[in-house]
Write a structure and sequence with these properties.
The protein is of the alpha+beta class. Helices cover about 30% and strands about 30% of the residues. It is built from two helices and seven strands. A hairpin with a 5-residue loop joins strand 6 and strand 7. The radius of gyration is 17 Å and the shape is flat.
């Protein structure tokens, strides 16, 4: 399961720029604003912190990159960087994850 976190400050929402992955044996929290990844072990009180150099990664903030690409496609300045299949696959994964969380069961992901 992945979680997108939002922090509420004085009535405003500030995205943390990260993700949390929760597994059976541990949890990993990525925080791109601090370039850190923290690993929480579920069977011990140990927490490991790793520094990550996100400036060397190709991901440029998914929503912003997608929006900029969409605007450039609409202006005829470039081709779409994401095929429709990728968008449909992403939507299917989100729906199956939601259904899995609601029913507490594993879901088969297939077209």
């Amino acid at each position: 399961m992945s979680v997108i976190r939002k922090t509420f400050l004085r009535g405003r929402v500030r995205p943390n720029g990260g993700a949390t992955l929760i597994g059976y044996e541990g949890t990993v929290e990525f925080d791109w604003s601090t370039d850190e990844a923290k690993v929480y072990m579920h069977n011990t009180p140990r927490v490991e912190t790793y520094k990550v150099d996100s400036s060397q990664m190709a991901h440029s903030g998914g929503d912003i990159a997608l929006a900029m690409n969409f605007l450039k496609v609409m202006r005829g300045e470039e081709r779409s960087g994401t095929p429709i299949d990728a968008g449909l696959w992403s939507a299917l994964l989100c729906l199956k994850a939601k259904e899995s969380a609601e029913t507490h069961t594993f879901k088969r992901i297939a077209w």
